[in-house]
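Lab notebook page, bench 4
Experiment: in silico fold of construct C2
Operator: M.H.
Input chain length: 172 residues
Purpose: comparison with the prior construct
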Amino acid sequence: MLLRLLFGICLCSQFATLPGQSSAQSTAEAKGARVPILAGWIANKPVAEAGGPISLNNFRGAYERGGIVPAGGAEIEITSVPNPSNLTGYIRTELKGAGPGPFEEAVENGKPGIRVTYTETLASDIRLVTVAFYLPRGSILYKFYLTYRVGNKSEQDLRLLFSTVIAGAQLR
């Protein structure tokens, strides 16, 4: 969702395909981060090449009208910004209006950060869950987002995959 808000575009037909490669051999890189592309997921390389975030999804870029994650689908976005002096204040400002849940201190594979989960209602039948993980490292704040629809039957698996992406991230 963040990707479409930042760029107002969807380059859905230009995704990285990985014939003959396993997910362990494939990575996506942008904004000072390199992450593994998991089996069944694809990366939107043109967005990263245009200076945008890493954008991964498990539905081959087939967004619903309006750039909405389809039922059963999920997307992961990774970006970075200069590390703010007040991280919790920054997060509160960024998520203002989203009604975020509690800020949870969390560690993903030795990487300490803050995890926040919130739900957005886009229409009476369309609600999205976003799990955000903010990872400060030196002068950079890395931001990881997982977005999927409320009621996704794979929610626990998606959260585990999200943790795997964070754990496998190589950060500058």
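Observations: Confidence is low (pLDDT under 50) at residues 1-24. The first strand starts at residue 27 and ends at 30.
Next step: discuss at group meeting.
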